[in-house]
Amino acid sequence: MELRLDEVNRELGAITRILSRIPDDAPNTPPLLICLANAHYKRFVLRNEPDDIQKVIEYTSVVLSRTPDKDPGLPDRLSDKEDMGKAIEYKSLALELMPEGHPSLPRQLANLAKLLVNLAEHNEPIPDTLNRTFHSVDRELSEMAAQGTTHSGCTAVTAFLRLEDAEGKPVADTHGPYRRVLYTANAGDARAVLCRGGKAVRLTYDHKGSDKQEAKRIVDAGGFVLNNRVNGVLAVTRSLGDSAMKEFVVGSPYTTETELSEDDEFIIFACDGLWDVADDQAAVDLVRKSANSAQDAAKVLLDHALSSFSMDNVSVLVVKFLPVK
């Protein structure tokens, strides 16, 4: 069955509220938010039966996010198995978005319908679509800043998992031959790390003032980097929003395309609150040594960050891949 885009928008909004625990009348998003949502759109059908999704990922992965004691006003976020079960009803297109920024950011940043619409309306390579989507959100936030609605910004990491044939075209039937292809995009220092045979493989790029290439780009644009901060202010060199710095802090994402293999065990999505106190391999090792489920894995990493006195907000999403049969 094919849903109209207005129906998709409505259903995705409902799922987003379920998973992030945001009430309908909440004016702002939390500083850190991860959403996992699903929808059905004919052009990008991935799975047609509820059990098909289990062939791709362990779908009881959860979102855990916590703010250090310095900002105790924000509640923890936890999506449980029951809620994930509700989301499975809207299977077929798996999208993950983790924006990190300020509490004044509008709900639009967590609106996965925007990304879905872009994916559905244009027949183009997924990396191009992700790039265009990041720029679209960035422009929207700049327009809101011009209207005085918000002047905030955020980093973001997103992933899109698709079943494809040998020619890179999407497939809807998992009974035939297919490849699992994972596309990622990020702007800023929110990171995605894949565990491949026990080894950490970073799928994203940290856009920071301490990076030589990014620092050169800032200087070439007429800015400067002081104490690893853009114009002495912002630590990240790419973000969505931050309109006051937009001449230097761009929204262009870094994108990757990875064909998953039998050696790929899981992927970790997290913000710098985790990576400030754990490198990629350490995070992978923690998950492999002490966590059986994706939910346990997210909690292990969250607890590690907090016990290591991370000074930033911490949000973690772990997705485990099931063996290919």
TrEMBL record:
What are the leading ranks of the lineage? Eukaryota, Fungi, Dikarya, Basidiomycota, Agaricomycotina
Q: Name one GO molecular function term.
A: protein serine/threonine phosphatase activity
Q: Name one Pfam family in it.
A: PP2C
Q: What is this protein called?
A: PPM-type phosphatase domain-containing protein
Q: Tell me what organism the protein belongs to.
A: Rhizoctonia solani
| Domain of life (superkingdom) | Eukaryota
Q: Which SMART domains match?
A: PP2Cc
Can you give the residue ranges of the PPM-type phosphatase domain?
Answer: 77-321
Report the Gene3D superfamilies cross-referenced here.
Answer: PPM-type phosphatase domain
